[in-house]
Amino acid sequence: MTDSNNKIRAVVLAALMVTSVFAGTIAFAGTAAAENTNAGTSAPVTVYLGDSVDISGVPGVESTMIGVAGDADGSTAEAQTSGLTDIDSSNGWETGAYSNQSDGDVIISVREPTISDLTLETDNGADVTDGTVTNDADNLTVSAEWNFARYENLTITIEDEEGLEVQSQLGNVVELENTGDSTTLTGLDDLDTGEYTVTVEGEEDLDGTTRSATFTIRDETNTISLSETTVTKGDSAVATVTGEPGEQVHVRIDQDDLEDSYNDPNDVFANTGDVEVGPANFTDNEGQDWVAVVLGLGDDGEAQTRIETGAIDTGTIEIELAQGADINNSAEDSADLTVEERSINITSAPNVVRVGEEFDIEGTAAESDEVAAYARIDETWEVISGDENPVDVDSNGEFLLELEASSPLNLPDSYRVAVVNEEALEGGSFPNTLSNDEFGDLDTETTITIRTVEGDLTAQLSSQSIAANVGDEVTVSGTALGQGDEVRIYKVGPRGDVQFQSTDIDDEAFEEDFDNINNRGTHTFLIVGQGRDGNYAATETEVNNEITGDETPQQAVEILNDLYSGAGVDDQVVELTLSAENPQLSINDFTTDGQVAQGEVTVSGTSNREDGTTVFIEVLGQNENVIASTEAEVNGSTSEWDATIDMSDVETGTYTLRADDDESSSSLEFELVESVSTPTEEPTPTEEPTEEPTDEATPTEEPTDEATPTEEPATDEPTETSTSTPGFGVVVALIALIAAALLAVRRD
Fold first, then answer.
1. Which of 131, 139, 693, 696 could form a disulfide with 300 if both were Cys (CB 3.0 to 4.6 A apart)?
2. Is 0.90 surpassed by the pTM of this model?
3. How many Å apart are CA 662 and CA 679, to the nearest integer?
4. GO cellular component annotations, sorted alphabetically (predicted)?
């Protein structure tokens, strides 16, 4: 009996052990059902880098696989002929294709695991990926696409702004099984407002493959905001509304805030892309008239519409936002818009200009098409001369008036200058004058004060002297403020010949070159500006009639000065003289008593050649061999040149320095020594200390006709001391004694 019991116990125990093993196997298989590790039994097969897959059943798989394409080409990878193979770099696997021969067919294809898309949608189909939802939305649909769905599912994780996972609050289904599938998370309205991050990732070995997107939960209240809260009448503002993605809202304006002439809703709302209904006129159940537009909120829960203000009264109006398309719905939010009258603002203008000078006035004139500048002369406003007056206002509402201080600003004075817009037009153009009454009737204008002063003309020559008949040129340049567009330049030669040149003024400056300086002597230049009236006192024809060619230089200069001066003439004249001589070149003595020390030596000189003329400098030996050389340029304004020549390696001896400019030359002989000897100065004798003066009076020396004897050297003989009474002398002493005697007698 005992043996039978033992046998029964053994059988039961064995059965329990077998059952436990199978139960464990069944349980393991149940938890791993989501992961497929079998690559299959046909070739080629695709696996993913980083996964562990059983490829032993794929025909042709050997323990060593050879890369034949992609990054794997030419490499080898280790495979398990039974069980799982880790498809990773530790076994040599790379993306690409593998075979069991270097030229064999593809057996294993290895790819990077990727999640190509992650989409978040609300119940109404609005795509809120990286967007917003309102806190009354209950559901959020998550869908994704990935390339390794054969082997692994995707898990879904949702974190709040603090990094805490909240997916457990949104239902039980938090994974995706097939690419393109979706799952709906519920209970979204139980979450706090804020930003949440949704992450999907591989469930097992490929959990390093992830993709994330965000959604933001905000308050359910619809809102409206304006790009501009204050605009000029005729300008526009953009209204931006927010709400539940995919829903409709409408924006409306009370028709009582519109001009009496209002008729067309398109004059208030622009039919932009987010508009789904309208713009149109509506009347609510209480008889109130509105102009409104219905907007569709996009996936981001936003929509925009442009509000035109041309038909809106000036002042502050309320723009309302309501849910849906029903005009009777109550407003959920509103924004105030202030519409101001059109205005002209000057942003840049000079306070002072010279008569005849060009100047600019810049500014803004929102919603104006054209502006013009006028100056007040007595009781009339006259249009100001200028290249750009009137001028169009650009698309940014900005303008630039290019004016000239000539008519009517050609007299030095203070002027009231106004800028007006197209309200002043008469027959399609701005009139030349406006009366005070006409100017006062304008709604849009602005004024400033500009003071005009006398113009200024300056001129100078690039050199005061020049070499004649060698092709050198001299430059006349200067500034011409308030002198119009050009200056006239006359050159009177030493034989009375007159050369004329008209030179343009550019940025209030002018410059002209003269190169026909052939005659020696004094050449006189007269530079003439137009003055404040913008005209020359004499025409070119009148000048030609006066200058016959037979005049002396002095006569020609006097005639020209007379033509541009006199009563009622405001032309400005500047007179300059130029000395033309034979070419001259000199060398300044650079030696010390004829000697120069070895090293770098600075040499200089003078020349009357034009500015920039090259001076060739050479050091010549006894046979006129060139020992050293350099070049210098003439400074025309100073008629000087200088250069440094290196004689560090030149042997000591006697040399000649020669300077040559191709027209003239000069030379200087010198001795090159190791160091220049400087005479030693005799030491200055030390002066004896001066004797202190005594209190005794010094006797006055009697004048003598004899020559002053030479002072003898000091001796040891004692010096005689004067016995004169100190103070005021003998006379004062006697007076003091008499006064004392009288005092004594009085006391007795």
1. 131
2. no
3. 40
4. plasma membrane; S-layer
